[in-house]
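Predict both folds.
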Amino acid sequence: MEKIFLDTTFVLPFFGIDLEIKGYTPKVFKNILSDFKSVHVSFLSIYEAKAKITRMYKNKKISYETMESFWPKLKILLESERFKFHIYDEQTDRNYNLISNTYPLDAFDTLILASAMDVGALLTEDTDMLSIRDKLRTRIQILNWQNLQSGA
């Protein structure tokens, strides 16, 4: 695989949020991502990441500095040539309609999957998206951390 699309969970580490996923470490994540020519993200995941980080701050799980550092860290990603940010476009809409007509996903999961379809691989821990991966009649691999780490 040359390209990978990240679900919101895997966007959070770029903003200083640790993931509680078996076998996950930031160092291994960074090494695995370095193997890809491009890393793709939906702008929806950026909004969702900011909302999660704000909620974590309000629940006193992270510092104000972590919340405040969101924009400078996002700016680095936006300026990176390796990171590609997806907007809602005509192809995403076609993919969205196809998915929503066939699979029982909520609107946000459908949008993430629709955006990822043209990339070819999606990294997620979302159980709903993972549950349909063998039923999809499209050309996308839906991977979780364990799959990615093992090279599946």
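Second protein follows, with its predicted structure tokens after the sequence.
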Amino acid sequence: MKLARIVNLVALGLLLLLLIRAVLAAIPSTALAARGGGGAVGMVVAMFLLAMPVAWCAKAFDEGRLRRLMGLGVALGAIAGLAWMALTMVLADRRDVSLYSITVILGAWTTAGAAAIGFMGLMIRQRQDLLIGRIVRLVAIALVALALGQGALAATAMELDWPAWDGPPPNEPDAAVPIKVAIASGVLAGGAVIASLVLAALSHGTGPAPVRPRFEFGIRCPRCGRAQRLRSGGDACAACGLRITVEAA
């Protein structure tokens, strides 16, 4: 079974359970309503948003695009989901502030990582026939990752009460510098994404980028002479570690 299908099934199951929990929290006679619902509706929205980049990672993984990195994105998404569910379902009513803060920080950074890798998985599927388009696409990926990192940093700063983040609202002249950097990176990321989409359309490359077929082949290592089977796209000799790359013509 494809990883994307597994991710979609798990996400749908979790969303269904969270929706049921949200409905029960809205019924006054239930125990969840007596506890205040534990942010049930917010958790449904958060898990829905988190499921999208994880699904993008799984799709790219199935297509053979940066498989290790995309697998890491799926793993980070799973950790983030567990962290947010623990916050609303387990830790919301507890007094252990340190554990709560650690979970918030863990959830923020794993969410940022999963979202950044998922966005990369989405963008590398975009056909870019022009060199400038490929450059802008890389810039867009980097800026989105920077903006997501700024968001995770802001969550960390709020949990740890960092003084550098204290100050007037972002629209005030004396607003804290980190807040200004976060806003600027977000605006630049949005502009780069739009530019990348426009360049893809101009180059008539709106369809998915072609995927090179992956296959196994038998070879004798030119360094140590060991006979073995390797995978195309770049693999290492099991004996001496020599990197051997073979692609389909």
